[in-house]
Design a protein that fits this description.
It catalyses: orotidine 5'-phosphate + H(+) = UMP + CO2. Belongs to the OMP decarboxylase family. Type 1 subfamily. This protein has 234 residues and is of the alpha/beta class. It has one domain: Aldolase class I (TIM Barrel, Alpha-Beta Barrel). 44% of the residues lie in helices and 16% in strands. The protein has an eight-stranded parallel β-barrel with strand order 1-2-3-4-5-6-7-8, surrounded by seven helices. The protein starts with 6 loop residues before the first strand and ends with a helix. The relative contact order is 0.13. Bound molecules: the ligand O=c1ccn([C@@H]2O[C@H](COP(=O)(O)O)[C@@H](O)[C@H]2O)c(=O)[nH]1. Ligand LLZGTKA7 binds next to strand 2.
Length: 234
Amino acid sequence: MSLSDRIIVPLDVPTLNEAIALLDQLPEVSFWKVGLELFVATGSDILKILKERQKRIFLDLKFHDIPNTVAGACRSASQYQVNFLTLHATAGRNALQAAAQAMSQTPSPPQLLAITLLTSLNSRELAFDLKIPLELPEYALQMALLAQESGMNGVVCSPQEVRQLRHVCGDKFLLVCPGVRPNWSKIGDQRRVMTPVEAIQAGADYLVIGRPITMADDPVAAWDKIRQELDEVC
Ligand SMILES: O=c1ccn([C@@H]2O[C@H](COP(=O)(O)O)[C@@H](O)[C@H]2O)c(=O)[nH]1
């Protein structure tokens, strides 16, 4: 797999037309993420369009509910035959296990990824707002271990935690990283960030890079620049 096949671009737009415009503009992108904004607004039509264009799909719906509901939601999502599907590790062991069990009885299931701790949160918010009495890297590690023990295929994590998670969880556990910012782009609401080169060098399997590409004045130039930066160093 080439390095550019390891970049996932989110379709974080509110309409199907805007999503299709991005697909048309960036034909070299092979892996797209559909998240809550587009899916809630337009439903599953975009998934059919991505399939017709032979793209890989990350359905990022971040399920967080009781075990029976999470398992049912994963079962329903599996009908779309997407590559990745997300749920929150904080739904707990029983919910993660119920999801894994549901997927074991599904033909061509997605790879289940648990969110460890949203990349928009920092250690101050973890301690003072969420009242978690662990250091952030330790908390992210505990969420990843919970996910691994519960049968998840991998986690969504910040690139800042990748080196430690790769070391502890091993090579087969998927590490998918949002919170990726080239040093020429705005950080926005992300808090735990690294550059694409740093994230790949730390051991990330996939990078999720959205606004630095999709909101750039010239998305094609931004995509090319990120690919070049990766090709030069990795
Ligand atoms: O912890 C998480 C989990 C998911 N995301 C999603 O990734 C993209 C990031 O987009 P950018 O524009 O590059 O910030 C977005 O769709 C999030 O919903 C995340 O950022 N952090």
